[in-house]
Structures are given as C-alpha cells and as structure tokens.
Design goal:
The chain is mostly helical. The chain has one domain. 81% of the residues lie in helices and 0% in strands. The longest helix is centred in the last third of the chain and has 25 residues.
Length: 239
C-alpha cells in the first residue's frame, strides 16, 4: 500500500471508528468507498477484519441492554445472506465491485437520511439480517438495514445489540470468504497495519460520546459517505 493511500485510508478508518463508537455504525459507510477507490484489492476482506475488531472493543465496555430476541431472528437470516454475498465477491470484477459498493453506500445513506420508520417484527428482522448478510459480505456494509429498525431504541441498546450483530456477521462473512478462497494474507496484513487507526478512533469515540450528540454527527457522516460513494461510482464507470 502506497503511503498516500495508507494515510487516506487510515484517516477514513479513524473517522469511521470514531463515528461508530458514538452512534453504533459508520466504519463501513465511511471507509468502504475510500478503500475501494484507492486500494480495491483490500476489499472486502480487510475492512471486514477491522469491522470484527471494533464491536468486540465496544462489548468489552458495554454489554448491557442487548436485544437477544431480536438477534435470534436477524442472525439466522444473516447466515443465509452471507452465502449470496460470497457469490457476489467471487463473480464481480474490481470495477463492478466499485460500482456495487458505491450504490450500496448511496442507498444506505438515503434510507438512513430519510429516517424511514419500519416496525420491528420477525419479518423485518429477518429481512434486515438477510440483506445485511449480502451487503456486509460483498461490500463490508451490513449495518444500516439493522440500524434502521432500531433507530428509535435507546442509544445503549442500539450500540450493544448492533455490536453483537456485527461480531457474528463479520465472523460469518470472513468464514465464507475464506472457504471461497477470496480472503488473502495481503488483506490480513493491511488490516494489521490499519488497526492502530481503528483503535485510536475507538478511544476518541468513547471519550467524546458524552459531548458529541449523535444527531449532530450523523448528517456530516452521511454527507461525506455519499460524496465518497459518488466519486467511486463515477470513477468505476469511467474505468
């Protein structure tokens, strides 16, 4: 990884980790377009490895108010969606994956920005898990469908429940990619090199959580994510 790319991706990882520590998700939305744009070979493996570390760090400190009943419906569906996501990674070229990542980010930003209210039912939990399994494995962005359902729950429950969802989901995605031979040592090495940026972001997010209201952070994150995704889609389409 070139120095310029490393700095830009490291900054994106830091910002994404900080935001996710505050609002419960964000590392995929912020980092995936940047990584796919600058170093497409790192996707999705490197980001999924980092996305596995982040919720573990969250659960070390916050592990109360987890909605286990909701997870029992979403996680089995996530398993099914993971298989489809592995197929997407195997079949898509870097250019196609770039377009896919960009469009997924734009769609997730749209539904998150509009704050569409969806009832939490067995059906919607299963649907969110299935869609998250596909997008989480193929593009490393699996949180927004699940977050959409929990947007009106207490902040503590959102963070802890999504942390469990991310841990299990990322582990499933990594196993699926490993079985399909789409996970490389180079991606693992890149994840290790970027880990300090993530850990610093976790610490900054934890320290600023009380002073950084989620409703002020979210619009800025969504705007940056949308802009990055647009650049990625245009560049991928132009070749």
């Amino acid at each position: 990884m070139e120095l310029g790319s490393y700095v830009a991706i490291g900054l994106a990882i830091f910002v994404g980790a900080t935001v996710q520590s505050v609002v419960g998700l964000g590392i995929g939305l912020v980092s995936a377009p940047v990584m796919t744009l600058l170093e497409p070979w790192t996707m999705p493996g490197t980001l999924i490895m980092l996305a596995l570390v982040l919720p573990v760090a969250t659960l070390v400190h916050d592990h109360d108010d987890i909605d286990w009943p909701g997870l029992t419906w979403s996680l089995p569906a996530r398993f099914l969606g993971t298989g489809f996501g592995v197929w997407v990674v195997a079949e898509f070229t870097d250019r196609q994956l770039g377009v896919a990542v960009g469009l997924v980010v734009l769609f997730m930003v749209l539904i998150t920005w509009r704050v569409v209210e969806v009832r939490v039912t067995h059906a919607t939990l299963s649907a969110a898990g299935f869609i998250g399994g596909i997008t989480g494995t193929a593009t490393s962005i699996g949180g927004p469908p699940f977050a959409l359902l929990y947007q009106h729950r207490p902040a503590q429950q959102i963070r802890t429940t999504m942390a469990v969802y991310f841990v299990v989901g990322a582990a499933l995605s990594l196993v699926g990619l490993l079985i399909a031979d789409d996970l490389t040592w180079a991606q693992a090495r890149a994840a290790a090199e970027l880990l300090p940026a993530l850990l610093i972001g976790v610490v900054v997010g934890a320290l600023s959580r009380r002073h950084l209201p989620a409703h002020r952070v979210r619009p800025a994150v969504l705007a940056v994510s949308a802009a990055s995704a647009l650049v990625l889609v245009v560049r991928s389409l132009l070749g």
